[in-house]
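Moderator note: this is an archived Q&A kept for reference. The question asked for a predicted structure of one protein chain; the sequence and the answer are reproduced below.
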Amino acid sequence: MSTDYTWHVYLAGEIHSNWRQRIAEGIREHQLPVTLLSPVTDHAASDDVGVDILGPEAEAFWKDHKGARINAIRTRSHLARADVVVVRFGPKYKQWNAAFDAGQAVALGKPLITLHNPEHDHALKEINAAAAATCREPEQVVSVLRYVIIQS
C-alpha cells in the first residue's frame, strides 16, 4: 500500500450514533492513510455557537441562522478539502443538512458514499443515484475506502 498520500474523508450527517467511531476504528485497524473530517458533533455546541459567539437572539429563527452560518464555514472548508465524502442518514430524524451536504459534495465533484438503512432507499433514491456507493454499515464504508486506497 502506498502511504505517500493521505486521503481526507469527510463524515457528514447523523450525529446520534457511533458510526463515525466505527469507521475510525476500521481505518486504524487496516492502517489506512486517512484523515477523517467532520462537522461539530456536539449537538448543543453546534446549535448554540452563533449566540455563544455573536450574542443572544430573541427568536429561534435568528439563533439558528447565526449558528448555521458559522457551522457552514467548517462544512464548506471540509467539503472542499475532502477526497471522499460519506453521508450518513440515520433512522430517527429527517436530516435535511445531510442531504444538503450530499448535494454540495456532488456539485463539487467529490466521490460520495451514502450510508443508511434500507427503509430510506426510496426517500434517498436521487442522492443514491449520484453516489459512488451506498452502504448499510460503517464497516462497508471502510471496505470501500480500503479497496480504493490499496488499489491506487
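Archived answer notes: The first helix runs from residue 19 to 29.
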